[in-house]
Specification:
Elements (H helix, E strand, L loop, with lengths): L8 E5 L5 H11 L6 H9 L3 E7 L2 E11 L2 E9 L8 H15 L4 E6 L4 H9 L3 E12 L2 E11 L6
Parallel strand pairs: 4-5
Antiparallel strand pairs: 1-2, 2-3, 3-4, 5-7, 6-7
Length: 158
Amino acid sequence: MNTPLEPRIEMVPMSDLDLDAVLAIEFRVCAFPWGRGNFSDSLKCGYLCWVCRVEGQLIGYFVIMLALDDAHLLNISVSEKFQRQGFGARLLHHAMHVARQNGAKTLLLEVRPSNRNALALYRHFGFQQIGVRRAYYPAENGREDALVLTRALYEILA
């Protein structure tokens, strides 16, 4: 619940109407962004796609794919203007909650080793590294590995 001093923050399912705002963030914060088709296909496939709005302005989003009792966080981003203010943590917590509500027992994700802020956030939330995907991401000079992280969701309230 927001107090009168806090901004109004909403987490709502993403719709096609959100795609322009989502893409605007994606293209500003990601060196190798998803395109409209990635987000549109995710919506059509029934992936768990959510957005975060602050005072009505879309400032972040996540996309989760479910597979049996596992969830895979495919994308999570926050507008640069709202980074380092706790919105990434709010989005991640909500993503974990939504995954658990939809039957997931674990949440898996990949992260660039060079993305130190994201790595610190995931570790703060208890994610543990379980592997490395070699040359997974495109990079300025070739390819970059991905660290594979996972976290049990049993203690997240359904």
